[in-house]
Write a structure and sequence with these properties.
This protein is an alpha/beta fold. It contains 15 helices and 5 strands. The chain has a 5-stranded parallel beta sheet, with helices on both faces.
């Protein structure tokens, strides 16, 4: 596949393609970068290319490629958290048992550990034994966003491949190729992440409600604003993205009007983020956010 269907990180594509063409694939890698930018897709494509039995890597026709596309390749496995919280030592012990068996179809045997930063300390120490003396045919790829959670002994035995956030142009290209409709104002909220883009697209109704709230801050009474802002009070798990959207709109208005009220609005939002991060009362923080924004935008609008 040669990463043709993956958007962004062209330098990584060139590096991994070169390792295939020069037959210099290593035993262990760390794919490190922000969530939602395609690290797992890169690892899967890279694995298919390594396992392919023909010179035209990821040919799609050999026994390996057919089994790979059918999710039945005996020499390929993805390990992930079973509870969404941690990867436990038992999973790594099973990996060790399986990796000790020689490949069946291909010349290599590949294990991807997704969300590797969720490995417990015990699991990492267990994996270390395999990383220190891997079988000649083994390739292990760790995918993670926070490398500080890995033991230094693990990191020192893996080749680090760093992935960058996707550009807004990359996100637009993805949206166009996949017929994803979304507000252009949400690009900065996506923070270079396709998964965030898709999540935002699925919550367009929420952002439309925010547009209404922002519009009404200029003209309605604060009690009416509080009453219509249910989306903020009920979105505790997603409040960071919603507040980022506020700031994206304020920044856009600042650039078009040079109105200092929007600088103050951004500061109010950032102060709210800090209070919420410090576990301040959630509803009171939203009350205060809306009141301060209303005072600045509504009363400022009256003065002007």
């Amino acid at each position: 596949m040669n990463f043709r269907n993956i958007i962004g990180n062209d330098g990584v594509k060139e590096l991994l393609n070169n390792s295939i063409s020069t037959n210099s694939v290593l035993h262990s890698y760390m794919f490190v970068g922000p969530d939602g930018i395609g690290k797992k897709l890169f690892a899967i494509d890279f694995s298919e290319m390594i396992l392919c039995l023909n010179d035209n890597k990821a040919c799609g026709n050999c026994d390996s490629c057919v089994k790979f596309s059918g999710n039945s390749h005996p020499d390929f496995e993805i390990v992930d958290s079973e509870d969404g919280k941690s990867i436990k030592i038992g999973q790594i012990r099973l990996l060790q048992e399986q990796i000790a068996e020689k490949p069946i179809v291909s010349d290599k045997k590949i294990y991807i550990i997704n969300n590797a930063d969720l490995m417990t300390t015990e699991a990492q120490n267990c994996l270390l034994k395999t990383l220190e003396e891997p079988p000649e045919y083994a390739v292990i790829i760790l995918i993670l966003s926070n490398e500080t959670k890995l033991l230094n002994t693990i990191k020192s035995r893996c080749t680090k491949i760093h992935f960058q956030k996707l550009s807004n142009e990359d996100l637009i290209e993805f949206a166009q190729k996949n017929n994803v409709e979304f507000k252009q104002e949400l690009l900065n909220v996506c923070d270079g992440s396709i998964s965030k883009l898709l999540s935002l697209k699925d919550n367009m109704e929420s952002y439309n409600m925010l547009d209404t709230i922002l519009k009404d801050l200029y003209s309605k009474d604060i009690v009416d604003i509080w009453n219509e802002a249910d989306i903020l009070y009920k979105s505790k798990d997603n409040i960071s993205s919603l507040l980022d959207y506020f700031n994206t709109i304020f920044l856009k208005k600042l650039r078009s009007t040079n109105d200092g009220r929007y600088i103050i609005g951004i500061k109010i939002v950032e102060e709210t983020k800090k209070r919420l991060a410090a576990n301040a009362n959630y509803d009171m923080s939203i009350d205060n956010l809306l009141l301060k924004l209303w005072e600045e935008l509504h009363e400022g609008n009256i003065r002007s």
